Amino acid sequence: MTKATEVTGDLSPGVIPRSPIAKTRLFFKLHWHRGAPGQATPDWVLNFCYGMWLAAFAFKLVGSSWDMSWHFMWLRDDLAPPHLINTVGTVIIMVLVAIHSYTGMGADRRSLRLMQVGLVVFLIAAPLDVINHRVNGLDLTAWSPSHMMLYIGTGIMQAGVIIGWLKYAKPGRTRTGVLIGLWAFFLENTFFPNGQQEYGILGLRAWERGAPEAEPELLNFAANQIGHPVDRVAVEHFTMPIADWVYPLWGIGVMALIFALARYTTGFRWAGTTVAAAYLAYRLVMWPLLLGMGFPISTVPFYLLAVGLAVDLAFRIGRGHPLLTAGTGALLVTAFGYGMLWVQSQFRPWILGDAHTESAPPVAYWTAAVCLVGVGALWAAAGPGTRAVDSLLAKRRVTAS
Description:
The chain has helices at about 1-10, 20-30, 45-70, 80-105, 110-135, 145-170, 175-190, 195-210, 215-225, 230-240, 245-265, 270-290, 305-320, 320-345, 345-350, 365-380, 385-400. The protein is globular, with a radius of gyration of 23 Å. It is mostly helical. Helices cover about 75% and strands about 0% of the residues. It is built from 17 helices and no strands. The protein folds into 2 domains: about 20-170, no CATH class; about 185-385, no CATH class. Mean pLDDT is about 90; it is low at about 1-10. Keywords: Membrane, Transmembrane, Transmembrane helix.
């Protein structure tokens, strides 16, 4: 029995060490041998592996959040602490992808390919971003091509991790909880470019009231890029270079589709609301930390909670009818999302009066019509694709039984 246990790694809970280092040693002792994707994976190995994925994404989350704030204050970013924190997460991911690839454990062919492709895209984008900075100077927008490649690479990796966990984890609270966490990270990575407007509007207002957050070197650099003195035009070009229609469409329309995917894959009736709440809780923790360290702060997208709630209510109203769910979802998401975003934008005049600040970025409200049509069409079009998810879940239930 002992010999068989050493080969399979099917250990009793009392034998599994608690220390991550000890677990890592045990894993390499028992399982470090080559295998095709889809190898049988003991529960403790699966849970430990995906727990490390969550830890890796957490490092990248903290690093990227601080990095966004950093670039609204400092021009220099070589070996900046936010980059180093992000690199820790990237190194953990590289190790995890290598383990999945070599042993074939904890991932099938599809999820493994997504992890690998996402990592390759990210690793290509990182030096391209550095080269871009060296040749063209600091990239002053979160929406640039090299930055978008970083988000896309991370998103592809996260999709692979979600698919892998969805396929191999046993139904239960742990499975649902990890899925909620993974979707929260996926949401943050996708939402991240909207931070340009959330930090930017406060940066612009700070300059207007005579207390600029950015160092003079950064302001001079931004002004020189467009051949201007350091005036409001130059500062606005640096802080708010994105059109007002982008923020609501991305923050409401695209995030609603992510909430819908989270609700569908988890089966948890309040998944959208929970994912939104988890992300907002993180933003509310980072806000005072950045403020306390003297770094620029942003507006917080509280309206996301209304968008997540709208998605959950749509699933309850639709009750398994895809077109009804999609149509109801589009109506509720548009009404709740734009309504709450408008209310949030009024916090400044209602609560702070004439204070020279803002509680939300500028919004082009005519985009509500685009959001209504777009979310409805894309949500309905996603219906056929859910059959693959249904098939995956059905196979998982058969395997578990």
